[in-house]
Amino acid sequence: MEPTLLQSEAEVEMLIDSINYMWILVATFLIFFMHAGFAMLEAGQVRSKNVANQLTKNLLTWSVGVTVFFLIGVGVEGVVAGDGFVPAFQGDAAGWLDWLYGAVFAMTAATIVSGAVAGRAKLRAYVSYTFLLAAVIYPVVTGLTWAGEHLAYGDVLFHDFAGGMIVHGMGGIAGLTAAWVLGPRMDRYNSDGSANVIPGHSLTFAVLGTLILAFGWYGFNVGTSAIIGEGAFLGDQLGRVALTTTAAMACGAMGAGLVAWLKTGKVDTLYVANGLLAGLAAITAIPDTTAWWGAFVVGGLAGVQLPLVFEFVEQYLKIDDVCAVFPVHGSAGVLGTLLFPFVAAPGVVDSIVNAFVAQVIGVVVIAAWTIVATGVIWYAFKATGQARVSPEHERDGLDVSEHGVDTYPEFGQPDVATDGGSDEVIRADGGEPNDGEIKMVTAIVRPDRLGAIKQSLAEAGAPSLTVTNVSGRGSQPAKKGQWRGEEYTVDLHQKVKIECVVADIPAGEVVDAIREGAETGEPGDGKIFVMPVESATQIRTGKTGRDAV
Fold it and tell me: Percentages helix, strand, coil for the chain, rounded to the nearest 5?
């Protein structure tokens, strides 16, 4: 039997829906992968003692957030939109695709906050805030905008294509608000109000995270476009979104790097990376409508404003935004959203004034709701003593205090596993090592030489040692460092202290072994000290003197 025209149309419509849903799922997976980028970006910008805490927050943001958004958030969004409380689990399986697509956007907004409060927020406070953001704060925003279309001026709707303000602007503003309530990290500001630079521990992680985020951002922007709409292939829109996203990204990096160079005479790596993301955040609201030249303007301005806004937040507002989430996501998202009518392609906007007013209304409403809701929640945490870790825990690092782990347990690489020394040493001269005394050999050396030193000591028959991570200064000159465009002086250098107590092994041989492993020929190789030990006691056996060693 030949298929009827109606059957053919139904089959075509089913095919179109299948292709579009597969496209949306691929975009969803790309956006999910952005969490790997956020994890690396934030981990690189915090101190080494807080890395595991930052990684855990990113894992729990996703885990807690998507669950709450499924059970509660979708329903709250429906109420605000005017459709009533219908949680995702009451819908059909096909509708769960829409839930998942919405969830990855919601969790992007949530995880932005973790970078602002890094290094001092209690894990329980952050997770509780994530719960409330996924359940109420973010769904109210999407209910007013994408789902309900309540924000408008006259007959002009507030325009946000992929979340420049709804996701990134909101997340950046929420992060700034939480950081303001929480207060700065210890030692971030001096008593006179001047700021101290606290560098993150890995630019490598930060740049890797940046590039992962940029890759996933194509899912954010380009993925928001369907492939086929109303029987037509949407190649024009896809091409525009792909171009404007890429151009804004590139110009954001160049704009931030240029301003950093003009301010300091150096092109700051972290500013370039952050500027790339700021360009992406700025274009996210308007990639479907922006002229090609407008993408250059939006991205460039987003990059230029980044160092200026960060300096304003740090120096004048005295807010410790650790990962610069406000200038990267907040102010950049606001900027791009407000530029909508001024950089639109011909024929997109009928009235620049009406369109701009609609954008201002959207930005003000979203910002006001985010500030009030976030401020109330974090003030409640603060009032009950649940917002911030104790000074002792903050000083020790959140990895140990909140998770009981050490992200970097080894000081040097490669690791050299050595067994105990020989039980008996036969000396050719018939004498007694160290003139019968116990000696303590202490060395202050470069951390990267520890592996070679351990090998040398093992070969010398003196494998037992104690290693401590220390910092200090000697003949090695101070050096200048730069973190996000600000210069700081490093006069206490990271070193490793090695202590080796010997009795049957001559101290001179231990000194030679350490020197052989530690020497690079450059200032800062360290020093070795030999001191007598009055006595020693082995705890397990009670042996004393040389027998204990």
Answer: 60, 10, 30
